[in-house]
Design brief:
heterotrimer, A alpha+beta, B mainly alpha, C alpha/beta, B: mainly alpha, MetI-like fold, two-stranded antiparallel sheet, 72% helix, C: alpha/beta, D-Maltodextrin-Binding Protein, domain 2, six-stranded mixed beta sheet, four-stranded mixed beta sheet, 19 helices, 50% helix
Chain lengths: 362, 320, 454
């Protein structure tokens, strides 16, 4: 079952615009992640698909049928809430059976479905427990089992892992992914965590500031971000964005400062350009003060790699990831260079496709 | 300095046991010296005095009176043991009072809770102008018993009352609200429910608004009708509050006095002669203190049973 | 820290306790202040009464007049709420400094007061003063006396009378009841009024009130209890299920069946409702205390008619007993104070004071000479019907059946009478309702006698 949004808009009132002109198609059986910082309207978008929040303008279709005016229950989907929305007074089994009972399904059918769903999420043993007697992860599984037991082929998840600790989050991530694949669900998953988006999604929609920033596969989004926001949102540590100016002397050259310049094959098309360099695409070497273009500010050793925090002579802060362990002192002058995977953005942050591979030198 | 047991960290279950014993020993040896006793009495004295004068003495005196006959000036004369109780519990009159009271109490409780639920459920919807209805529904909370009684006496007045005029206008049969035994009982029930409703409504509305909205959203998505949601989400979610309000209403109804006194004086044909009103009449109208005392003890036992039930059930139900 | 706290306690524990005790003490002391507020040199005479509204205003005036008329005593009136509750207050406070020297207690508490032995019978002072009681209504006096001895002096006194809306009867061309009507006469008048008004006016009502039932027995010369309604000896047997009670209830039943009767129930609200209906012209006849005459004449556009309490057919009217309350003297006060109380009682009985009392309150003037006063003559000129209750009172010759029922536990007895009346009004069997009442009343009487060791 596919879901199509056409020019969807949401205003809470005349002054408060929440979402603008959202269009996307989610294909059948796809794991689709909506990601964005908090307050970007991603949960609202999900609730609009579910039918819990009315749409101001535009169209939501499920399998090419417009469902704008359809009640939630008529949309044949399930939803997993951030707080799981478990009924505290019912045991696990009854929680899973709730929707089936509400739809007045046959008793035997209910039993079979609930038992299967609980088995699938490994909760058979805990069927008689009340939610308060379960750990966070177990509660999460009950919520999943509820989605599983329902026959609906569309599942919406609203930040389902944000109440779990880091270890459990990784485990549940895998379980949800496996479940989605096994059941062939069309899954729309809302999160603010770029790692969840990267690791699970077939396609990602990046939302910010009422607008869709980019829709694409994880690798497209990482390697070809549509703008500096998307570039900054994905990847840990964050991408370095350096402000540069077209050189006065050579219009093929971008100057970050006098000690860091980038030569392009083509003419620099704008006066001001932002340069994005992922931390692991930079190189660092110890240098004499004369040669150096940066100073070490801090060093974090992570075991397999080291993050070097440095200040460029221009005053801009950068961070560089280098493999293994390095021996730099704080305040030691260094020379930073990069020669591949550079991204260029105009003053508004939009991606500039500058054709030739660039070179950075001191 | 002696190392306190709490500071030593036990390393094995055995040492935990030992520590416990140590504390027990210390407690056993703990005695008050003379000075401490002085302070203990200084602090306990006033409250003991008040409790003694206003609670314990009347309680014991009531129990004592209930075992005697009292003469015209209320003095005990003949010891009769439990015969006051036996007389009461075998008297058709008293048993009818008991039955009337139970009917009233349960009718008031059930109707109050049912109406309170309906109104709270309506008012918990997010609709324009709902604030006005919330205020209206809870308005009877500030109404005193006497005002309520007078207000409803006006409505029930057989010649000039609103209900009488309305039924004349609509050509319906006149109901003799306060003179027919069955109708009088319902008149008192209606008035009591009307008075209770404001409080019950507010408490239930509060409980309903603390139910997480995601529960209803989840149910909406799963296809539950609003009826199904009311009975399978709202009711179980507010069940501790519901039980609490029911018991409070129940016990308060047992103690209903003002309304009865102002509206029916226990009549007609004792149809509204509740236990509390009976006690008042027997003691302060008829001067039969012995019998009134026995009735008080019986009523105390009945209310205590309901209170006990409340605690027992609340223990089990509050934490779902 | 702990030390400081202990020191604090040492310093303040006792003072705190002392203040607490003082507050408690003051609360108790407060009550006795009124008695000591009498002017210097006068003996305070605390007077408890249960008169509210216009009656209280008139009573306070009477007290004030008494205090001004002499300089030996000062009567201090204190309102004590309704009759039923005041009885218990009087009895329970007896022998304490808070008790009254003279108090007003209502008709049916007479036996209780007598048996309590808490009062000095006024006969003692009548004898001492050779006070002439012949001018005071004999049927009122006999209510508060036992075996020729006056226990208390009647004060506010009323009798039940039959009120009818004379204008309505004229309008529909129905002959009103005669001055001393029989049951069938009242039925005839009520039925005709109901029919000729095309059911717009209800014929009659009779409040569910034990007093009215007892008066029906009195008027037919029938005892409710043995030993001359308690006047010749301690009662041991109650007999409500007698032919007279049955006649009375059958009479009402007849009217209920014809549809001309309206039931307003019992208690104060019943009285309010019947008077409201009467004044609104929706009710033709009702039987009620003569004390309501004030309410029925002020603001009534219709002409008020008053007849005597009805009597059964073929039975000569015996005259009804009284209702209201009497003034009693407590025996827990010094002789001087008791004397002051008696002086005040005598003052309340003068022709002038009784006339003013009747005019202001509707209660009947007890002193025969009151009728000749200008106050009452003027009143009768204005409202001729107001004369009838006084005539009914004067016409009654006291005997055991119309001098009240001298038995303890009359409040409960009345309750049971009323329950029986309610049962009958609501269609229950007359015989079984009366038997039920008799059973309960006799059981209660037996317990009372046992408790009193009789």
């Amino acid at each position: 079952m596919s879901i199509t949004l056409r020019n969807v808009r949401k205003d809470y009132d005349a002054q408060t615009e929440v979402l603008k002109d959202i269009s996307v198609k989610v294909e059948t059986g796809e794991f689709f992640v909506i990601v964005g910082p908090s307050g970007c309207g991603k949960s609202t978008l999900l609730r609009m698909i579910a039918g819990l929040t009315p749409i101001t303008a535009g169209e939501v279709s499920i399998d090419d049928k417009v469902v704008n005016d359809l009640a939630p229950k008529a949309r044949k989907l399930t939803m997993v809430f951030q707080n799981y929305a478990l009924f505290p007074f019912m045991n696990v089994w009854d929680n899973v059976a709730f929707g089936l009972k509400a739809r007045k399904m046959d008793q035997a059918d209910i039993k079979q479905r609930v038992d299967e769903a609980l088995k699938m999420v490994n909760l058979t043993e805990l069927a008689k427990r009340k939610p308060r007697e379960l750990s966070g992860g177990q509660r999460q599984r009950v919520a999943l089992a509820r989605a599983v037991a329902s026959d609906a082929k569309i599942c919406l998840m609203d930040e389902p892992l944000s109440n779990l600790d880091a270890q459990l989050r990784i485990k549940m991530r895998q379980e949800i992914y496996a479940l989605q694949r096994k059941l062939g669900l069309t899954l729309i998953y809302v999160t603010h965590d770029q790692v969840e988006a990267m690791t699970m999604a077939d396609h990602i929609m990046v939302l910010n500031d009422k607008h869709v920033q980019q829709i694409g596969t994880p690798s497209e989004i990482y390697q070809n971000p549509a703008n500096d926001f998307v570039a900054k949102f994905f990847g840990t540590p964050q991408i370095n964005i350096l402000n540069a100016k077209r050189s006065q002397t050579d219009n093929h050259v971008l100057d970050v400062d006098s000690d860091l310049e980038i030569a392009l094959d083509e003419e620099v098309p704008a006066e001001n350009v932002k340069i994005g360099i992922r931390p692991d695409d930079m190189k660092v070497e110890a240098a004499e003060s004369v040669e150096a273009n940066a100073t070490v500010k801090n060093i974090e050793f992570l075991g397999d790699e080291t993050i070097i925090y440095a200040t460029l002579n221009s005053g801009e802060d950068i961070h560089v990831v280098v493999p293994g362990q390095v021996n730099y002192r704080i305040f030691q002058p260094i020379k930073v260079t990069a020669d591949s995977n550079l991204m260029f953005f105009d003053a508004d942050g939009n991606r500039m496709n500058l054709s030739k591979e660039a070179y950075v030198h001191a | 300095m002696l190392k306190s047991p709490a500071q030593s960290t036990p390393t094995s279950p055995l040492s935990v046991e030992k520590t416990k014993n140590k504390i027990a020993d210390q407690e056993a040896k703990f005695t008050l010296n003379a000075k401490d006793k002085y302070f203990a009495w200084a602090f306990l004295g006033p409250s003991l005095l008040i409790l003694g004068v206003f609670i314990f003495y009347p309680m014991v005196k009531t129990l004592y009176l209930s075992l005697f006959l009292t003469n015209t000036v209320g003095k005990t004369t003949v010891f009769v043991g439990l015969s006051n109780y036996i007389n009461l519990l075998t008297s058709a009159d008293y048993l009818s009072s008991l039955g009337v009271t139970l009917f009233y109490v349960f009718a008031v409780t059930i109707i109050t809770i049912a109406l309170g639920l309906v109104l709270a459920n309506l008012a918990s919807k997010r609709l324009p102008g709902i604030g006005l209805f919330r205020t209206l529904f809870s308005a009877t909370m500030g109404v005193s018993v006497s005002v309520a009684a007078i207000f409803w006496l006006f409505i029930f007045n057989p010649s000039t009352g609103f209900l009488s005029l309305a039924s004349t206008f609509l050509h319906l049969p006149q109901i003799p609200w306060l003179t027919d035994p069955t109708a009088a009982m319902w008149a008192v029930i209606i008035t009591t429910v009307w008075m209770n409703l404001g409080f019950t409504f507010l408490i239930l509305l509060g409980a309903m608004s603390s139910v997480p909205t995601t529960l209803y959203e989840a149910a909406n998505i799963e296809g539950a009708s609003s009826r199904f949601q009311f009975f399978h989400i709202t009711i179980p979610s507010i069940s501790p509050t519901l039980f609490f309000v029911s018991i409070i209403t129940l016990i308060e109804s047992f103690k209903s006095f003002g309304l009865i006194d102002l509206m029916t004086k226990g009549g007609p044909t004792n149809a509204t002669n509740m236990l509390v009103y009976r006690i008042y009449k027997d003691a302060f109208y008829s001067g039969n203190f012995a019998q009134a005392s026995a009735e008080s003890i019986i009523l105390t036992i009945i209310i205590a049973l309901f209170t006990l039930l409340q605690f027992k059930v609340l223990e089990k139900r509050v934490n779902y | 820290m702990m030390k400081k706290f202990t020191a604090f306690l040492k310093t303040y524990a006792l003072p705190i306790f002392a203040i607490f005790a003082l507050v408690l003490g003051l609360a108790f002391v407060h009550g006795s202040r009124d008695a000591s507020s009498a002017k210097a040199g006068r003996i305070p005479v605390v007077f408890w009464h249960e008169m509210g509204g216009p009656a209280e205003v008139q009573l306070d005036k009477m007290v004030d007049d008494f205090n001004k008329s002499q300089n030996k005593y000062e009567v201090i009136p204190q309102y004590q709420g309704v009759y039923d509750e005041a009885v218990q207050k009087i009895i329970q406070s007896h022998g304490t400094s808070a008790s009254p020297a003279v108090f007003q207690s209502f008709d049916i508490s007479t036996a209780q007061m007598m048996h309590s032995k808490y009062t000095t019978p006024v006969q003692k002072f009548i004898d001492e003063d050779n006070y002439d009681t012949s001018n005071i209504s004999s049927v009122a006096r006999s209510f508060y006396s036992n075996k020729g001895k006056q226990l208390a002096m009647p004060f506010n006194t009323s009798q039940p009378v039959l009120y009818y809306n004379a204008s309505l009867f004229k309008k529909y061309g129905v002959t009103p009841p005669s001055k001393s009507p029989s049951y069938s006469e009242v039925t005839r008048a009520a039925e005709q009024l109901y029919k000729k008004s095309h059911h717009k006016v209800k014929g009659m009502t009779m409040e569910i009130y034990g007093w009215l039932l007892e008066e029906a027995l009195a008027n037919a010369h029938t005892s409710l209890i043995n030993n001359g309604d308690g006047h010749t000896g301690n009662p041991t047997k109650i007999n409500l299920n007698n032919p007279t009670t049955k006649k009375f209830l059958t009479w009402i039943r007849t009217n209920i069946k014809s549809g001309d009767f309206v039931n307003y129930g019992s208690g104060a609200s019943a009285e309010t409702n019947e008077i409201a209906a009467f004044l609104a012209g929706k009710l033709g006849i009702f039987v009620q205390s003569s004390a309501y005459i004030g309410q029925l004449t002020t603001g009534n556009k219709n002409k008020l008619g008053i007849s005597y309490f009805p009597h059964p057919d073929g039975v000569k009217a015996n005259g009804v007993g009284i209702g209201g309350a009497a003034l009693w003297i407590s025996n827990d006060k010094p002789a001087k104070t008791q004397r002051g109380a008696w002086e005040f009682i005598k003052f309340t009985q003068t022709a002038k004071n009784q006339a003013a009392w009747q005019k202001a309150t509707g209660y009947l003037a007890l002193n025969k000479n009151s009728q000749k006063t200008k106050t009452l003559q003027d009143l009768y000129k204005k409202i001729p019907a107001a004369k009838v209750p006084g005539e009914q009172l004067a016409s009654a010759k006291p005997n055991n059946t119309n001098s009240g029922i001298l038995m303890e536990g009359m409040q409960l007895t009345r309750e049971l009478e009323q329950t029986a009346m309610e049962t009958v009004y609501n269609g229950g069997n007359i015989n079984s309702a009366l038997n039920t009442a008799d059973k309960a009343m006799n059981a209660n009487l037996k317990t009372t006698n046992k408790a009193d060791g009789r």
